[in-house]
Amino acid sequence: MSQREQFRTRLGFILTTAGSAIGLGAIWKFPYVAGQNGGGAFFFIFIFFTFVLALPLMMAEFAIGRTAGADAVTSFKKIAPGTKWYGIGILGMVTTFILLSFYSVIGGWIITYLGKIFTGELIGLQSEEYALLFQKTIENPWLSLSLQFIFILMTIIVVGHGIQNGIERASKIMMPALAILFLILVIRSVTLDGAVKGMAFLFQPDFSKLTSKAVLDAMGQSFFTLSIGVSVMITYSSYLPKTTNLPRSALSVVSMNLLVIILSGLSIFPAVFSFGLDPDAGPVLLFNVLPTIFSQLPFGMFFFAAFLIVFFFAALTSAFSMLEIIVSVLSKGHLDKRKKYAWMIGIAIFIFGIPSALSYGVLSDVTVFGKSFFDLADYAVSNVLMPLGSLLIAIFVSWKMEKSLLFDELKRGSKLKRGAFQAWYYILRYVAPVLIVIVMLDVLGVWRRVF
């Protein structure tokens, strides 16, 4: 007999779901993507996509998951029996499998740098030496693979213990700790000389710098940071009791995610501008630029260690959700099978991620479509698979699910007004699909060829 767990509390659900969203997308990827796309203008376009696309899509995933009370594949089978719509859940499994395969590589880098701080290896280096150290670190195949495996191992152990005793318990510890450490970092960063330039870079938009690529990146980032389009939210909401307020929960998760993104920007950009460094350093921003900054501050390595711990907690809580999607589908709610599937899938993800881990070392000269294995996986997930999954979910909920039952599900446990529901439904049915298709045509180059 299947035994399906539930979250102990609404707070536990919100912290866990926010933990899924507040990961590398918010702390690692957003700062460097914003830096590469002009700062403030990108940030405001990102906010637009977050509320117009990501929030309605999150509510759609919540509605699917709690209506069915099942995993990402079974949910679609229950709601639309005898159809192929369950393929959306399979697409989500494939996407999170690929995502965790390169995500775990970055998790390994974080562990490496935490070790280097505590051994004193990062103290007293010059800017060029930090860049060289990072290059040597990611080029070392055995170090990259072993730390990637440790990150995967930690994820396996937590997910194997289930929702209440594993993921929810870990999130309740990590998320408050993340918030406290972040506040300390922000206070230190914004009090530096010249910090106002960094704050202006983030909050003062210059829309003349916007490009079609920046708009595409902003939409992809809104999906990436909220884990939209991969059925994470379907999986987590399936563990919810019917009394939970879904609209309020979705808004809480989005608000927490935006808060962390703002804190992330305030902890990085003021410091970057204060020391006259370049904000568009790319993916290496956190490993090259930040050590240079913190090394020049009193107790700098303490603050850098705090930042890396924040980074690590965020990465782990997101990794839990990625593995959970696949494990929940395979275990079908049987608690005694969770550990076995967590180990099986976790090891498979590690093996699949080996090319990404070696992309900056022994496989640095190997490219596919002009991209390294790491960059290809990142691009496929953020700019193709997540938008595609989001498009299909929007179509499924607004065209396949019965509208009256959908309203009843979202109203249950909340005070949702009919007018607000109608606005959400309209966005999901017409606005979201059109915007997603336009941006996906752009990423494929079709839009530019036509116009």
UniProtKB/TrEMBL annotation:
GO terms for cellular component: membrane. It is a multi-pass membrane protein. It is found in: Membrane. Pfam families: SNF (PF00209). The keyword Transmembrane applies. InterPro entries: Na/ntran_symport (IPR000175), SNS_sf (IPR037272), YocR/YhdH-like (IPR047218). The chain crosses the membrane at residues 12-30, 42-64, 85-111, 142-163, 175-203, 223-241, 253-277, 297-320, 341-363, 383-402, 423-447. The keyword Kinase does not apply. GO terms for molecular function: symporter activity. Keywords: Membrane, Symport, Transmembrane, Transmembrane helix, Transport. Belongs to the sodium:neurotransmitter symporter (SNF) (TC 2.A.22) family. This is Transporter. The lineage of its organism: Bacteria, Bacillati, Bacillota, Bacilli, Bacillales. The gene is yocR.
